[in-house]
Each structure stands twice: as structure tokens, then as C-alpha cells.
Amino acid sequence: MFKEDRKITHKSIDNIYENIAVTKGQFGQVTTDSNATRIQSSELTGSDSVKSRSSKAVVVCLVLLCVLLLTAVIVLCVIFTQERQQLISNNENLTNEREQLILKNTNLTNEREQLKWEKNDLQRCLGKVDGWIYYQYHFYYMSTEMKSWTESRKYCTERGADLIIINNRQEQELVKNISGGAYVWIGLTNIDVDGSWKWVDGSTLTSWFLLSGKPSYSHYENCALSCTSWWTAYSCNKALKWICERSILQIALS
């Protein structure tokens, strides 16, 4: 009887241990499942955080990219506008230059026509001055007859000229050449104001183109003549050859 009770007791104890083991195992499993859930929840929370940070980074990158693109577009627009304005300005400048060139061409054409007209007119005028010698925009006439200084000047003025005015040594050399060294009346006198020598155009004598010294003259010698390379005072009533001088302008206006 006692043995049987002991067997029952052992079985009861074994059952209790088994129940405890089962219960322990079950609670352990539950405990393990709870920990796993917490771990999985923690893992899910960390993953969401990473995804959130990644999303923010993507958004920031997109915003920066948009800003860069917008900046690039603005810069390109500014450059394009500046280039366009520059091209417009260049085009206006070229247009103005073209208009100026057209105007200059028109002016040159007009000047050419004017020169052609003046040339033809000069040729026409030259046809009227037979016996005259051209030199430095002036025409000179050497007489073949002899007259007094006053009559010689009258001959010149009747033809739109006057007695020669010698302005430099080159012109004096011309007188020497066309006169052949003969005495000739020149447009220098002191008839109006004795002692003050003036040219026929009213200008006062300032220089004597002579080889040496000033010409000698008396109270009655009020007109000047030229011989070779010097001048001298001479009586205005004496008959000499003379030289007339006439400018191209005088011919063109006549």
C-alpha cells in the first residue's frame, strides 16, 4: 500500500514537473515571442527612420537641383538678353555706318561731278587766254608792245587781270624766264603816297627780292620795273613792256 502511494506521489511529482516544464516552456515561448515582437518593432522603427532620412535627402537634392536649374535658366536668360541687346546695338551701328557711307558716297559723287564741271569750265576759260602762261594757279601775259606804267596797267585790267605782283623768288625767276631779261613793268608803285611802296592790290611792300641792296629812285621815279633778278624805281611815263597776272578764280568768275 505504501509502495503504491509512493508511486502515485512520484507520478504526481513528475506530472507537476512536466506541467511546470510545459508552463515554463510556454511562458518562455511567449516571452521569446514578445521579445521578437519588440525587436521586430524596433527594427521597423529604425528602417522607417532611415527611409525618412533618405526621403528628406532626396527632397533636399531635388530642391537644390531645381534651384541650380532655375539659376542656370536665369543666367542664360540674362546672357541671351545682353547678347540680343548687343546684336541690336551692333546692327544699329552698322546701319548708321552704312547710312554715313551712303552719304559720303553721295557727297563724293557730287564732288566728282563738281570737279568735272569745273574742269570743263576751266578748259573753256583756258580757250580764251591764248598767249597766257600758266604757273601755280595763275596766268601770266608777257606783252609784245611797250607802254607807260599807267597804260600797261589799263591793258591788264581791261582783261580782268593786273600788273604782276611778285610774292617770292620763284615768281621772280618766272618773270626772268618769260621776259628774257628785258625790263618790264611790275605792279609796284608809290604814286598814291610818295615814299610808301605798295602793290596794285593795296598791300605794302615788305621784302625786296634783289641780289643786292634796294633800288635807287628819284622823286619822279614812282613805278617799279624788274630786270633779271632785281627791281628798280623808274619814271612811270617811260614806255616798257609789262607782265599781266590773273588768277584761275578770276577766270572762272568772269
UniProtKB/TrEMBL annotation:
Keyword Transmembrane: yes
Transmembrane region(s): 57-81
Family matches, as SUPFAM superfamilies: C-type lectin-like (SSF56436)
Coiled coil regions, renumbered to chain: 77-125
Keywords: Coiled coil, Disulfide bond, Glycoprotein, Lectin, Membrane, Transmembrane, Transmembrane helix
PROSITE patterns to which the protein is assigned, alphabetical: C_TYPE_LECTIN_2
GO molecular function: carbohydrate binding
Pfam families reported in the protein's UniProt record: Lectin_C (PF00059)
Annotated ranges, domain C-type lectin: 135-245
PANTHER family reported in the protein's UniProt record: ASIALOGLYCOPROTEIN RECEPTOR 1-LIKE-RELATED (PTHR46490:SF6), C-TYPE LECTIN DOMAIN FAMILY 12 MEMBER A-RELATED (PTHR46490)
Protein name stated in the entry: C-type lectin domain family 17, member A-like
Originating species: Cyprinus carpio (Common carp)
